## 1
Amino acid sequence: MKATRRTGLVLAPVKRTAGRMKSEITRARILQAAKAAIAVGLAWTIAPHLPGVADNYPYYAPLGAIVSMYPTLMGSMKNALQTIGSLVVAIVLAGAVIVLSQPNVFTMSLAVGVGALIAATGWFGANREYIPVTVLFVLIIGGPDADNYSLGYLVQVSLGIAVGLLVNLLIFPALSNDAVDRQLTNYRVVLADHLSEVAQALAESWPPERDGWASRKDALISVSGEVRAAVILAEDSSKANPRARRHRRDVGADFEDLAALERVTFHVRDLTEVLAGAVWGTPIRVELRSELRPSLSLALNAVSTLLRDWDSEATQRAAYSAAADAVASLMNELDENRDSAPATSIGAATAIAIDVTRILAALNSRAEEPAERD
């Protein structure tokens, strides 16, 4: 029961990170739903007033509006082009059936099969299923009036797509810059908390009573994936977005920061496994001499402080210098004990020390040249 409570406390920052991201996603979805409702209403209002045969099929305009509703402008435009492309391909296939033969069970099945093969190429993204479905619509619903039906279908869907794109452009087009800052900060806090927890375990009586850090390492991967998704969304949301001109952001620097933190995560997980082996003998049984633990604890605490001071130019260099000194002191102590200690004991401490050194290397460029943020 105690172990469960400790694990819950250790995972609290991870849960807070997930909670903040879910809250942001919820707000974005509410806004997107409202925009979709507006776009559908406008498309349905305009559709009956189109000239020619298109006004016979007004119900396809709202469908086009819904299809064009994506969280980002670039995603909306890409989806719109793929939708129109899939409809054109489907109409061509259905037209070939009408021109070259006549609709029957065999020719309809053949056209749908060819459409499914084209859809399977992935050229039309998530809208690939429109190809075989539209083939059936044109041949079954259009029937003898397939040409007018095809034209009306395509025009009305295109109208809905145009309305949807316009609504997406004019009403708060999504820009996810702020979310990236929060997610990267949360990621660093989670890593720093984990290292602090490991450092405290090393400073306590042996074996340590705290054991939450051992299970926390797996949650780091989940946090990493969520942050990467946030950075990718921010990059996509800035494309073709007029708001991005006023809120410029170096997304390339965000990816560099994320890559550095992902490397840090790899080494944090590795040193955690080594320490778990020293405590419980799994996954590999190793020894860790008591006289080496204080230096290891100091080094991990120093790196934890560096992660917390990542965004502060005033303290970042000092934190990096302190972490480098702590690691250098640890290495010197390992060298002094190399001849008098068993290989397994020195090996465990050395493995942790190397992981800490690699963490510093991953953060080094960021510490020397802090990325600018608007």
## 2
Amino acid sequence: MRTEMWMVVAVAAALIATTVVLAGVLLVKVVRARRLLRDAGIPMENKMAFWGALIYLASPVDLLPDPVFLDDIGFLLLALRSLQTAADSAGLARRR
């Protein structure tokens, strides 16, 4: 292969690796937020956002093909925001 083709492959691989790492980090944050809210009297809709994001992440049906995790990252961000809003309204302190 030519050098230009290897560069394109390297850039694509780096982008895929970056999105996979970002999705993993967000998944860990969502799970930690869920642990914080486990029995704090949080409304069911916020808990459903958590489970919906996990199901979408594991689902073979995606808006974008699987090597591109941008849609999965978006769902994880929405679930994390929903859980953080629920924690703030319940008066739970964030751990830093």
## 3
Amino acid sequence: MLELRPNCECCGRDLPPDSGDAFICTFECTWCGDCARDRLHGVCVNCGGNLQPRPIRPAHLLASKPPSTTRIVNPDCLAERAPG
């Protein structure tokens, strides 16, 4: 089951479980759409994997399968990366 992290690991922006603007890699590193596109160019700064839209967990499952509350920030992603 996905961890559903609460924020972008780059800029810290809140990404609630129903956000359509959250992107993840295979290790569930979580990024907002702006950072995923403009800073990371679709590549996870942590593992080098590609970024995909994070699925939305249905609201009726959030009580029994809550999202993570642990905030993670990776300051390395703040440096603008070249595409490719």
## 4
Amino acid sequence: MSNQIELRHYRYFLALAEDLHFRKAAESLYISQPGLSRQIKQMEEYLGISLFERHNRKVILTKAGSYLQTELIKNFKQLDEIINHAKLVNDGLDGNLKLGYVGSAMQDVIPELLLKFKQHHPKVLFSLNEMDNKKQIQALLNQEIDIGFVRMERVPRGLNIRSVFEDTFSLVLPKNHPINEDNFTSLSQLKDESFIFFDASYSESYYEKVMQIFDKRGFAPLISHYTVNASSIFRLVENNFGVSLVPTSLKLGYDMGIKFIELNKIPQRTTLRIVWNTTNTNPILANFLNLTKAK
């Protein structure tokens, strides 16, 4: 009997599952409330599943209804992606690849990868969104982006992770700071300075790596500011609010009153990794992953 269910029934169900109110759901669907009630009842009869508990004016999803809602949202989103991809193909493009990234990845790694990819796949449309690590992970789980560029070591089940670039750290100082590359010997010279760091929420593993650097030097940094934006860090340093420690690749693309001292003699490194959802069906994704594997 399930072959009597049409796509509109599922859309009616999702509307009611979201609003949990027949009148509101009916209004959002531009149908009558009795009509919606009848369609939902037909759907339950066809499927042999109780989807809602009805208590006077209150509507509650059953356990089966809640499961169906979750899976339908996931699959409808995939259907939308398929249709959008078909539209791109119709317009002469091979498809769309949505990337999330932390700021440092855009300085060098991503532009290099995109240029290489474009040589072999010139008809791919790229959507780029700067996002912190946690937002990327959630967007990947929801399949709102195809690839994430993160600074973290572990990801939730269902996601894959691979290293693409290992970076040194660099000290960031105001341009007029007395310490420079010629007289710098150790971070201990800056133990009385105020430090400006990426917030731990930016990446807990990255923050721990930075703290390890100071642990090895035998002192805890005096932290005056936290931020999740590199340009904010640099602007604060430029205006003498403190000094900072960042991935070396971040020094590219900025023209401010600051200077960098690369700490290439310390063992600590920060690794940029790509992350993707193992269930992602975007046909462009596999080609992009092959490129990063060869990098």
